[in-house]
Amino acid sequence: MIGYYAHHLGAGHIHRAAAIAAEAKTPVIGFSTKPAPNGWTGRWIQLPDDADAIDSAATDITAGGTLHWVPSAHTGLRDRMGLIGKELAKGEIRVMVVDVSVEVSVFARLHGIPVVVIAQPGDRDDRPHRLAYDLAERLLAPWPHFAASTWPRRWLDKTVHLGALSRYDGRPPATPEPGRRVLALWGSGGLDIRAQDVGAAAAATPEWHWDVLGPPASGAADLPNLTWHGWVDDVWSRLSATDVVVTHAGQNALAEVAAARRPAVVIPQERPHNEQHATAAMLHQAGIAVVRPDWPEPEQWPRVLERAKIHGGTEWSRWSPGDGAARAASVLDDLANAHR
């Protein structure tokens, strides 16, 4: 059996888990604070929250900088680790995938179980990340091998570069109807852009219609060419119908844009370890999409959108070959069989 821990922040970890588990020949048991994703066929252990009612000023949440999140005397942390440990102690899990948690990586390895860590871009040379990446038997990188990396050789030697992987991989990209539509795609991992900024961009581009997916907007402008949809289940149809996507540089959002092969403007948001800026730099250096360091001024938007439309979306095939989930599952199946 394969164990799979999926972090609760944002939607990408859960979507990635579902895509990989669907390709695996070995049964997969999932662990997360979130409920099981749609279509999950194996067992799923929903874990207690370990992030509520934390006074970081009064609690040593990092154990002296050795870990990322271990708040002292926290019932949620104790209970969730207890549930994970109960499953690990059964001896059925042959390999543990961790996406992402230094603490779960260490915990599984202390049970004698090989660990596969889903790697992340950015600065990962802090003590906790070095511990997790060093102990991992494999590192799975959801970006292509040609992307620049400053990792040490000991990590690169055990890394499998999957390329981006999405729940939409394998679907034929649709050709949108002629027109000028922008899809602003913002995820559940947090939003740095204000509704007023989107409104100003739409007002400066009256020949384009803006559709916005993501958190409900407060203070949004009432414009004829701007529609706020909130959260929607069918993101694919929106992606397929748009001419240009404006998105952050989170792994899941980029994977879905890549699967649809849509022209894009990528604007990284501030995240720990410089993750999104590192990803955006990879895209820029490879010429995959139009990358902006921050949200453009209103008068810049007409030129930015035209540039993205002309650039096109065919280069996304280099970022996301479409077989990432199958390749990840193959690695996990091989490891599970090797450790029987």
UniProtKB/TrEMBL annotation:
Coiled-coil segments: none
Domain Glycosyl transferase family 28 C-terminal stretches: 232-291
InterPro entries documented for this protein: Glyco_trans_28_C
UniProt GO MF annotations: hexosyltransferase activity
PANTHER family: GLYCOSYLTRANSFERASE, UDP-N-ACETYLGLUCOSAMINE--N-ACETYLMURAMYL-(PENTAPEPTIDE) PYROPHOSPHORYL-UNDECAPRENOL N-ACETYLGLUCOSAMINE TRANSFERASE 1
Protein name: Glycosyl transferase family 28 C-terminal domain-containing protein
Species assigned in the record: Amycolatopsis lurida NRRL 2430
